[in-house]
Amino acid sequence: MAHLLSGACLGNREQARWFLRVARAQTGTAISKVAQAAPDSKDTLKTLRKAHVAALKGSRYRVLDEDGYDALAPAVGGVLPALVDDLSEKSRRDLGAGVTRNLQVVAEAATGAVQRWTQLNDEATARIMKREEHIEWLRKLFTGWKEARPALRESRRRRDNGGNVQTGQQPVGRTRTATAAQAGGSGDGGQQAKWVRLMMLL
Fold first, then answer.
1. Which stretches does UniProt call biased (Low complexity) (predicted)?
2. Do the beta carbons of residue 77 and residue 69 sit within 8 Å?
3. How far apart are CA 115 and CA 100, in angstroms?
4. Predicted confidence (pLDDT) per residue in 67-77, tens digit
5. Structure confidence by residue, pLDDT tens digits, 16-62
6. Maximum C-alpha span of the chain
7. Which of these, 175, 143, 179, 140, lies nearest to 156 by C-alpha position?
8. Residue 65 is part of which domain span?
9. Residues 148 and 195 in one domain
10. What are phi and psi of 54, to 5 degrees?
11. Residue 65 lies in a domain
């Protein structure tokens, strides 16, 4: 998750930046609430301020280092040191509920960023699989064409030879060459060889 939310993942950088902006805003609001209602809760304020600074740097520079994400993790997980101020039960409950809502927004933003990456990854995987299916189909088509090519040539040769027999013309291809070689037996040997070579080129 750190890789996705810190901005290190290129495919999820925009979603990570959006998450960091949300975290920056919500931790800032939580700091204001705690500082006003329970200023002696030093550990709580310190944890929130570290998370806020990490989110601020991440949203500005588009990426967090490992230490920055570690500082932000308590806000994402909603785990903070307990308040220590001498507050009434109602005030403590109201303050805790308010800060919890802020951290829930941060957690929801983190979840949304991860879900968006999952969606994009699934779409990319589907495109790759589809492309591989097309490549496999083309490979099979080409293989079938190569295997059928000799039979197609033979069929064409027979068809052409059959038509030539009916019209009294010479056969084509190798049959024509053999016929030319036989006919040239009574003529000049050099001319016969030249004629055979010429027919082989057709």
1. 173-183
2. no
3. 22
4. 888 889 899 88
5. 888 889 999 999 999 999 999 999 999 999 999 999 999 988 888 76
6. 126
7. 175
8. 2-126
9. yes
10. -65, -45
11. yes
